[in-house]
Specification:
single chain; about 130 residues; alpha+beta; Nuclear Transport Factor 2, Chain: A; six-stranded mixed beta sheet; 6 strands; about 25% helix
Length: about 130
């Protein structure tokens, strides 16, 4: 699978995530894929468990993709997930093998108010 094919598969994955299509969203995963959430210390083993974990999420979710970058078997997506309207900034590292995600690690960061002492050093991004 070439880089263009991998990118296309990721685009389909994120579009299905936004649409709430849990079947299509998980087409990209190998049957024995592993998904890790380092902040919560959780590891999902197997495509079926990953899919059930997402399908059972109680919040309304939406995805805004900021950028996708990758080459070969490593792809990184920077995006915002909103849970019931509250944004969470997210980075996904996907490791592919034979065109399927074998391992994914997701990092989540909630927004925070910047300290006043930095006001003269920065510009607002959103």
């Amino acid at each position: 699978m070439g880089d263009a094919d991998s990118r296309s598969a990721l685009d389909r994955h994120w579009a299905a995530s936004e649409a709430g299509d849990y079947e299509a969203e998980h087409d990209i995963y190998a049957e024995d894929a592993v998904l890790e959430y380092p902040q919560s210390g959780e590891r999902f083993r197997g495509r079926q468990n990953i899919q059930k974990g997402r399908a059972g999420h109680p919040a309304e979710r939406h995805f805004i993709i900021k950028r996708i970058h990758g080459v070969g078997d490593l792809w990184i997506t920077e995006y915002v997930i909103t849970y019931d309207g509250k944004p969470t900034y997210t980075v996904s590292l996907m490791e592919l093998r034979d065109g399927k995600v074998q391992r994914e690690t997701q990092y989540f960061g909630d927004p925070f108010d910047p300290p006043a002492w930095r006001a003269g050093l920065v510009e607002k991004t959103e």
